[in-house]
Specification:
The protein is of the alpha/beta class and 347 residues long. Helices cover 24% and strands 26% of the residues. The chain contains 11 helices and 17 strands. The relative contact order is 0.16. The structure holds NADP nicotinamide-adenine-dinucleotide phosphate and zinc ion (2 copies).
Length: 347
């Protein structure tokens, strides 16, 4: 079992620190990936701080992984040594439940195997991308198109697909009015992708401090939610609202912004409940929905879509020793718009 360098949380309150972990030997259907870049998702922070429930420490997080294939098992057909590949939020699923058979393995009825903090098929706890290498079964490994700069590609593996999936599911296209709540890692990708799909895009941010960026990234309109007039002005406006906020917000106020048959889909995952007044849903026959990451098929479709439309995340490259500071900046909504770890700094 190869021992590799990694950066791990040792408790819910301690800073993350350098460590080593063991990766499994490359099995017949596995690929070994030398990780080049690893994105920092707000879910990593929720997880290591125990906000979504207790976890086992030490825990290496990170589920926005890109790297190069350095070894393949004897039965691997989808990837070869030297390929540029990606790994997102899951590394396996049961492959036999109704949802897996429908190609929606992110909703595996037996629980998909998360890239980190999940019980793996061999009973061990999965360890994520803040590490130099990872071993993953071939069909949960994505092809990263050459057109996407490698140092920018990592955030597509979670932030990209988590926003692409609901935008595609609710059939966003020309004529759609889409609002994106929160312009962080997920939110800024939602803006870019919805714009590329042809929608009229509005950002609803806490303040106007990122307005210029929002408009540059593809938004047509930008409003501050701290201004109460925003909610009056935008009543009954949107077909789809994508809520990417990591904290509790007044969901009823946002529901009032949906037009007839509109949907508010939450991809943001605050630890606290978001209480909904049913009366907020009666008017305009509104829906409140959730969406979790995306399937492997959809992830590849999103990567190819981004290559075709020249879409890449806005990133800030950091070294391993900057991860704790990056976490604080994410928590302060001071991320422009995704931190990406240069994994060579872990070597
Ligand atoms: P992020 O980069 O921190 O972005 C969240 C944004 O929400 C912030 O930039 C900020 O935008 C806004 N915000 C933060 N605190 C707020 C508050 N108290 N009130 C109002 N707005 C606030 O986080 P992320 O990585 O994009 O992740 C966002 C959420 O999605 C997290 O909860 C994460 O766990 C979840 N997530 C879910 C899935 C899924 O499968 N559904 C996948 C990945 C992540 P403004 O400054 O523009 O207001
Ligand atoms: Zn994520
Ligand atoms: Zn399944």
């Amino acid at each position: 079992m190869p021992t590799v360098n990694a950066f791990a949380a040792t408790s819910a309150s301690e800073p993350l620190s350098r460590t080593t972990i063991e990766r499994r030997d490359v099995g017949a259907k596995d690929v070994l990936i030398e990780i080049a870049y690893s994105g920092i998702c707000h879910s990593d922070i929720h997880t290591v701080r125990g906000e979504w429930g207790d976890i086992t420490y030490p825990q290496v997080v990170g589920h926005e992984i890109v790297g190069t294939v350095t070894e393949v098992g004897s039965e691997v057909t989808l990837h070869k040594v030297g390929d540029r590949v990606g790994v997102g939020c899951m590394v396996n699923s049961c492959r036999e439940c109704e949802n897996c058979l429908a190609g929606e393995e992110q909703y595996c009825l037996n629980g998909n195997t998360g890239t980190y903090a999940s019980v793996d098929r061999d009973g061990s706890i999965t360890q994520g991308g803040y590490s130099t290498h990872i071993v993953v079964v071939e069909d949960f490994v994505l092809r990263v198109p050459e057109a996407i700069p490698f140092e920018k590609a990592a955030p597509l593996l979670c932030a990209g697909v988590t926003t692409y999936s609901p935008l595609a599911h609710w059939k966003v296209g020309p004529g759609s009015r889409v609002a994106v709540v929160g312009m962080g890692g997920l939110g800024h990708m939602a803006v870019k992708i919805a714009h590329a799909m042809g929608a009229e895009v509005t950002v609803l941010s806490q303040s106007l401090s990122k307005q210029e960026d929002g408009l540059r990234l593809g938004a047509d309109h930008y409003y501050a939610t701290s201004d109460p007039e925003t909610f009056d002005k935008l009543k009954n406006t949107f077909d789809l609202i994508v809520n990417s906020v990591s904290a509790k917000i007044d969901i009823n106020a946002y529901l009032s912004l949906l037009r007839l048959d509109g949907t508010l889909v939450s991809v943001g995952a605050p630890p606290e409940p978001l209480p909904v007044q049913v009366f907020s849903l009666f008017g305009n026959r509104r829906s409140f929905a959730g969406s979790g990451i995306g399937s492997i098929r959809e992830t590849q479709e999103m990567l190819d879509f981004c290559a075709e439309h020249d879409i890449a995340p806005e990133t800030e490259l950091v070294g391993a020793d900057d991860i704790n500071e990056a976490y604080e900046r994410v928590l302060a909504s001071d991320v422009r718009y995704r931190f990406v770890i240069d994994v060579s700094t872990l070597a």
